[in-house]
Design a protein that fits this description.
- It is built from 6 helices and 10 strands; from the N terminus they run E-H-E-E-H-E-H-E-E-H-E-H-E-E-E-H.
- It is of the alpha/beta class.
- It has one domain: Alpha-Beta Complex (DHBP synthase).
- A 10-stranded mixed sheet has the order 1-8-2-3-7-4-6-5-9-10, with helices on both faces.
- Helix 1 packs parallel to helix 4.
- It is found in: Cytoplasm.
- Keywords: ATP-binding, Cytoplasm, Nucleotide-binding, Nucleotidyltransferase, Transferase, tRNA processing.
């Protein structure tokens, strides 16, 4: 039976985060709050756990799992080069609702699906998520819902869809944005918006004027 923790109770939160980090390190799945929608997460460097995440969602390898990080600097260890445009977007919108698709370092030992050498990376603006990521390092995290169903904006909604496929649920209150992150591909010379979402294209163009939307 899954564990469920109310992280608004500060007497519960530290223990809940410790339990969640243990679950991640042991290859289990956890649900965590973010600023956009709730996420289902696993150790990004555990291919069996990532496969379990895809299975829990009913999703194939053709839709690779994004990665959440707990600090700006983490991306420097995930890619060979952070372009000036990518750095500007990170400084403007992280932590927050912007996901960047980057070419990851070939030395990384992970399998997030059929990503063809790229990875989608985001730093969420939520204290519970940040504290967990600081304990675990980068996590493979997708929206906490069955494929084709609405993304969960509360822990209860996530539990209703995912049930005991997830070992532990962290309830951090309703997701503030309630919509998924904006995704921008920065692997080419001109950044391109792949999905509109929490960060508007107008806001992005204030930082990168030649952005293709």
């Amino acid at each position: 039976m899954s564990l469920f923790y109310d992280c608004s109770d500060l007497t519960v939160r530290a223990g809940a985060l410790s339990s969640a980090a243990h679950c991640v390190s042991s290859g289990q799945l956890v649900v965590l709050p973010t600023d956009t929608v709730y996420g289902i997460g696993a150790n990004a460097f555990d291919p069996v756990a990532v496969a379990d995440l895809l299975a829990a969602k009913g999703r194939g390898r053709d839709m690779p799992v994004p990665v959440l990080v707990g600090s700006w600097s983490t991306i420097d260890g995930l890619v060979n080069v952070v372009t000036d445009q990518a750095r500007a977007l990170i400084e403007a919108f992280w932590p927050g609702g912007l996901t960047l698709v980057v070419t990851h370092a070939p030395s990384l030992d992970w399998d997030l699906g059929d990503a063809r050498g790229t990875v989608a990376v985001r730093m969420p603006l939520h204290p519970v998520a940040i504290e967990l990521l600081e304990a675990t390092g980068p996590m493979a995290v997708s929206s906490a819902n069955r494929s084709g169903q609405p993304a969960a904006t509360t822990a209860e909604e996530a539990r209703a869809q995912l049930g005991d496929d997830v070992a532990l649920y962290l309830d951090g209150g309703p997701a503030e944005a309630g919509i998924a992150s904006t995704i921008v591909d920065v692997t080419a010379e001109v950044p391109r918006v792949l999905r509109a979402g929490a960060v508007s294209i107008e806001s992005l163009r204030k930082v990168v004027p030649d952005l293709v939307g």
